[in-house]
Every structure is written in C-alpha cells, then in structure tokens.
Specification:
Two copies of one chain form a homodimer. Chain A is built from nine helices and two strands, in the order αααββαααααα. Chain A has two domains: about 15-75, Arc Repressor Mutant, subunit A (Orthogonal Bundle); about 80-220, Four Helix Bundle (Hemerythrin (Met), subunit A). A two-stranded antiparallel sheet of chain A has the order 1-2. In chain A, a hairpin with a 3-residue loop joins β1 and β2 (about 75). The radius of gyration of chain A is 19 Å and the shape is elongated. The model of chain A is unreliable at about 1-10 (pLDDT under 50). The first copy, chain A, is mainly alpha-helical. Chains A and B meet through α3, α4 and α7 of A and α3, α4 and α7 of B. The structure holds a DNA duplex.
Amino acid sequence: MPVPINHAKPIRISAKENAFNQLQQWIIDGTLRPEEKLNDTELAEALGVSRTPIRESLQLLEVQGFVEMFPGKATQVTKVKKEDIIDLLPPLAALQALAAELVVPNLNEHIIRNLEDMNERFSQAIQIENYFAALKLDEDFHQIIIDAANNPYITAMVATLQAHVRRLFYHNSIVLTTHSIEDHAKIIKHLKNHDTTLVSKIMRDNWLNAIEEFYSRERE
Amino acid sequence: MPVPINHAKPIRISAKENAFNQLQQWIIDGTLRPEEKLNDTELAEALGVSRTPIRESLQLLEVQGFVEMFPGKATQVTKVKKEDIIDLLPPLAALQALAAELVVPNLNEHIIRNLEDMNERFSQAIQIENYFAALKLDEDFHQIIIDAANNPYITAMVATLQAHVRRLFYHNSIVLTTHSIEDHAKIIKHLKNHDTTLVSKIMRDNWLNAIEEFYSRERE
DNA sequence: AAACATTTGTCCGTATGTATA
DNA sequence: ATATACATACGGACAAATGTT
C-alpha cells in the first residue's frame, strides 16, 4: 500500500501553532480552569517546547480574550461568566445574519445540499441525544454559510466569537434542542427563495433566542 | 520644581507595545508600503529593541490582517486594495448599527451632549476643509457610541475594522462630505427619541453609503 | 547539485520588576 | 522595611529552512 502523501498540509507545523491550538482547546474544554495562573515554564515543559512559542501563543490567546496578561505580574485564564453570553450573542447574531444576506447572491445547488445534509446529521445527533456532536454539527452548519459569504473579516470575527460561545456552552452543559432543527430548516427555505430580509431576520432571532435558552437551562 | 508624577500611566510601557503601535501606524499611513518585505532585524535596529518584541508585534499585526507571515519564508505588509472596502464596510456597518441599538437603553444627557459637541467640531473641520481632522473626528463620534454600548467584543472588532478603513482612506485620499454631518444629526435625533429601529437603520445605511462614496471619488 | 548566504523559528540566559516572608 | 524568591520581558545565540549561485 502506497504511503498516503499529505497534500493538504505540506508545510511544517510550527511549535507555536501546535502550542496555540493545544492551549486554546484546553481553555475551552476546561482543562485549564478559569482564573488559573499560567506559568510559561510549566507549559513549556508540558508541551515539550521552549518558553518562546508558549509566550507567543499566550499573546494570541490574549487578543482572542481567552487569557489575560498582567505585564510583569502574571498571566491567567480569563473567567467564564454566564452573563458573557449577553455580550457575545448580539454581535455574533448580527454577523451571522449579515453572512446569510451576503450568501444569497452566491447561492448554488451545492451549498443548499450541504446545508440540508448537515441539518439532517444535526437532527440525528439530537435524536440519539449525542449533544456533544450536535453542538459541533450546529457550528458546522453555520460555518457553511460563513464560508459561502466569503468575507475574510466576518470569518475571523465569527471564529473568535464562536470559540467563546463554545467555551460557555461546555462550562454550562448547554444542549441544543429540536427547536434548532426547525430554525435551520427555515433558514434553508428562505435561502432557497432568495429572501434576503427574512433569512437575515430568522438567523438573527435564532441566535438571540439562545440567550433565553441559556438562562432557562439554569441549574435545576 | 517638583517632578510631575505620572499618575495616569504608572505602568511601564512595554517595548512590545511601543513597537506594535509604531508599526501599525507606519502601515496605516503608508510609511511601510503595501507588500513591503519586513525584516525583523532591520525593524529591531530601527526601533532600538531586540527581535523579540518585533516578532511579537508582527504576530499581533498578522491577526489584525496588516501583515502576512509566510512561515520560514518572509513577512510582508498586506496589500491595500480598493475593493477591500466591499468586505470591510458591511460588517462594520452591522456592528455600528448594533452598537447604536445597544446604546438606546443606556442613554443619558452626557452622551447626547458629547455627540452633539463632536458633530459640531466635525462640521467645523469640514468647513475649513481640514479633512484629515474630520476623518479623526468622525471616528471619535462613532467611538462615543461604541464606548457607550459597553460591549468588549464589539469594541475590539470595531477597532480592527476601523483601522483597516482608516488605512484605505489614507491610501486613497478619501474625504468626508457635508453629507456625513446630516447623518450624524439624524443619528442623534433618533437616539434622543429612543427609536432603536430607525437609529439602527440610519447607522447602517450611513456606513454602507460610504462604499459608493468611495467609488464615486475614483481618480479623476 | 551542493555549498553559501540569509532569514526565520526556537532556545535559554539575564535583568527588571513583583510578591511574599 | 529589607531581603528573598520568583515570574516575566527582553536580548542574543543557535539551528533549521529557504533560495541562490
């Protein structure tokens, strides 16, 4: 059997990029707890690299709002507060709605089929109560629209906001409901009709509703 | 004479932050030209620091989209393309419109007065044809609203988008017109009336109109 | 093709400044 | 309050990778 050649990523992955991805994942999933103090020497040892790529990664994570650096004093993981969802979702909703508007003129069969397929898989994940997978598939559904909108600024901003939302959801054991399946179906329907106004509105409301969903699922 | 104590900034400004601010300014105003190759050793000498803070600054500038890094090969200033305005303004308009919506419940006399004052100064700058100052005052006007919206995610994203817009305007000698004065007045009026829907719409249209303004001022 | 020059990515030592006893 | 321990910010050197002759 021929060795499969990695065409996709012929470039060497830098230590910095590895460190960044690993640290971000650890912060999102809670391995690195909120307010935990980050010692670059420790992290360097843990990841088997020197302090430099660690420091560089931490600075990027600071820009994204996952760590807070107090120059000369300390570096720590930012807090996770439920109320953050109130700051997080309105801009995310606005950008997702805008992305949906921008997609309309670029629509094609391929995109619609991908959306329908993804929503089907999303629906199945919810039915078998695999909420972890559902969360990921929901993101993938929306990512199709973001990608199709083809706007690098929106792509970058949504990526950061989504990462924060993901972190909040992880830390609060949020699950998505069958309600989302219908929302996705509506979005697809309005996209098919090239109804820019309606798809924008549904998209925005879909995300804003999540604020209430979030609070209604308060610890019981 | 007693030495004036710097109460405002007791914290030491880091070499990294200095380097970052200087490099960003140079890229925006064109001192560092689009597609110029950036040699960190040169920059380090120019700013009188080592390569470390330069490298760190460049990485932050990459996240913001001002430089592009080709790992192992080179680091260069990103291009400035007129068409970028098409990608830039829709999300900026959406976020500014959202900020205006969010401000409405927080409105107070102080904010309104600041806005009126700033628009007055903006108007004067345009009258004496100091378009450089006008550009800055226009940003300040909108910044009042962003600040009052009090949403850290919006603040961060708008700062980056604004920096890109500023760069485009610099490089294309764009000037703001008396039209903007009226837009600002309308925004203030609708804010006073707590008319969330209208202020959002005006704000969005105000920014989107700038796309056409931009192209109508094509080289003559 | 191979050795060279250049530049980047990484490592680690040191000085400055902070917190704690 | 002084001194001690420690973490960070920065500097400078080495190594790996690129492209060049």
